[in-house]
Design goal:
Radius of gyration: 26 Å
GO molecular function, one term: DNA binding
Helix content: 40-55%
Shape: globular
Largest sheet: none
Pfam families: Fungal_trans
Structural class: mainly alpha
Number of domains: 1
GO cellular component, one term: nucleus
Keywords: DNA-binding, Nucleus, Transcription, Transcription regulation
InterPro entries: AtrR-like, XnlR_reg_dom
Strand content: under 5%
Order of helices and strands: HHHHHHHHHHHHHHHHHH
Length: about 525
């Protein structure tokens, strides 16, 4: 029986997920408004679709029949609806709940048929569109989109006609997301930069100004790719300290050059300004630029502190200053983050969480630093942000737990100042004044060698921290526990199998295909 099943041939069109009918009704006129919201908010950032062609096909009276025959178009269409519906206050942070999830499940049901017949542009576009909707299978979807794109030779596509431009735009949009994902995940990219011959086309819209947003993020993605290859790959770990520092300087030069290519009012380091209106997606674009810059700068600064020799006092102090400044900048930018399901998780949680830990670690190791009060204030801001995040998600993301770090840091500093901590022979005292300016730059920690006996840094590991009260409501009898009790799953339950979830197995895409189409 096993041999028979192994040798049996399967037709991908016969694969089904066995969905059942949903309970909530839908309306045909919603499809148009969802599509408009998609092209208004998401398309400027990821311009891989031809809006005129898409809307023409979506409004065709034969759309229901087309959806049954063309599964790639079905996946793309319902993914666009799912993404657009999130901007109508219909999205949720709970996996499998809400109208966007119902629409997304229609598209996801066609996934087996999208993967096998690979050499088709619409398949690559459909799979790439799915990557925005499901964090749980993001890696698989991104990998499949890259595989289809390279199989179609989109990376070497040249030409200026409409078809070739759309193929080029699709490839570079996939390129941006794949490089971004790989750098965040700490894995090598599947796209070889040395084997790309496709030009970067102009953006399809002009209402965002003359700036080529697609080219802007392609350049940043190229920096991410070079940074991983030269600094974080397995081969890079064999480099000497001198080679490491030289590579860091090279990447930092590229990053500064990328920042200088931006309009002055949008450059990281300047006050956050919303040059382009919310309706055009400009707010998110500007916020993404700031976060993308500080994300790389934090990685470079932390690596410098890790590989630099202790006697390189000036470089260590400069890297520490940049690290703290970037962490403060990220926390300051949290006031501009939309606490909504359509906001990317790395902006919503990962980068602010890293900034919180950076400042917390610095305060604990430097309680006598003249900027401690300022750092504690930023920790309070971060605590407020994560508390608001839990409130905005109605408890789906139990991020208020992170507010405890601000309390622990403040209590630790108070105990240090009151002499309640075990005494040390010598405590590190920073020379110089506090940075009172708005740049957040820090003075050097010391003007003497770290080996000097006159100045030593207090080591919190030499004594036990005070036991601060913390209410842990996680039940040990519950194997799943609470989402917020595990930082790995705090901003996305990646271990959840959406293909076997109850919400997925109780959904019938046929009902949505009949109620959302065609446009009226």
């Amino acid at each position: 029986m096993v041999q028979a099943r192994v040798g049996e041939a399967y037709d991908p069109s016969e694969i089904s997920t066995g969905f059942q009918q949903p309970r909530s009704p839908t309306f045909k006129h919603s499809a148009r408004s969802y599509t408009e919201s998609y092209f208004l908010h998401i398309h400027p950032v990821y311009p891989f679709l031809d809006r005129v062609q898409f809307e023409r096909r979506a409004s065709d009276k034969n759309l229901p029949e087309t959806l049954k025959v063309d599964k790639a178009w079905c996946a793309l269409y319902f993914t666009v609806l799912a993404l657009g519906s999130q901007f109508h206050d219909e999205g949720t942070f709970d996996q499998g709940k809400g109208k966007p999830w119902k629409l997304f499940q229609v598209a996801l049901g066609t996934l087996p048929e999208l993967i096998l017949p690979s050499k088709r542009l619409l398949n690559a576009q459909a799979i790439f569109a799915l990557t925005f909707s499901c964090l749980s299978i993001l890696e698989m979807l991104v990998t499949e989109a890259v595989r289809i794109a390279t199989a179609m030779d989109l990376h070497i596509c040249v030409g200026s006609d409409t078809t070739h431009v759309q193929m080029q735009r699709t490839f570079w949009t996939i390129y941006n997301l794949e490089k971004e994902f790989c750098f965040l995940a700490g894995r090598a990219s599947a796209i070889a930069d040395y084997d790309i011959g496709s030009p970067v086309p102009k953006p399809p819209r002009e209402d965002l100004g003359e700036l080529n947003w697609l080219l802007l993020f392609v350049r940043h993605s190229r920096i991410l790719s070079k940074a991983y290859e030269k600094l974080f790959s397995i081969s890079a770990t064999l480099n000497s300290t001198a080679v490491y520092l030289k590579s860091i300087d090279t990447i930092r030069g590229d990053l500064d050059g990328w920042k200088d290519s931006l309009p002055p009012e949008m450059r990281p380091g300047s006050p956050f300004r919303q040059r382009y209106g919310d309706e055009s997606g400009g707010r998110f674009l500007t916020l993404k630029i700031h976060f993308a810059y500080h994300h790389v700068l934090i990685a470079l600064s932390r690596l410098t502190l890790h590989v630099c020799r202790p006697d390189c006092i000036e470089r260590l102090a400069a890297s520490e200053s940049e690290l703290i400044h970037s962490a403060r900048s990220v926390i300051h930018l949290t006031q501009n983050i939309d606490l909504a399901p359509y906001t990317p998780t790395w902006i919503l949680g990962y980068i602010p969480l890293s900034a919180l830990f950076i400042l917390f670690d610095f305060v604990i190791h430097n309680p006598a630093h003249p900027d401690t009060r300022k750092n504690l204030a930023f920790l309070d801001i971060a605590a407020g942000y994560f508390t608001r995040l839990e409130f905005a998600t109605d408890g789906s993301l139990q991020s208020s737990l992170l507010a405890e770090f601000a309390h622990i840091a403040r209590q630790y500093v108070q105990d240090f100042q009151n002499g309640k901590l075990p005494p040390q022979d010598k405590y590190f005292q920073t020379q110089g004044r506090s940075d009172g300016d708005s740049t957040g730059a820090m003075p050097p920690q010391s003007n003497v060698s770290p080996s000097s006996e006159t100045m030593t840094r207090p080591d919190p590991t030499l004594y036990e921290l005070p036991q601060y009260e913390y209410n842990d409501n996680t039940s040990t009898s519950n194997p799943e526990g609470q989402t917020g009790s595990d930082f790995m799953y705090l901003f996305g339950n990646s271990h959840t199998d959406i293909f076997t979830s109850e919400s997925m197995l109780s959904f019938d895409p046929a009902l949505y295909e009949s109620q959302y189409l065609p446009w009226e």
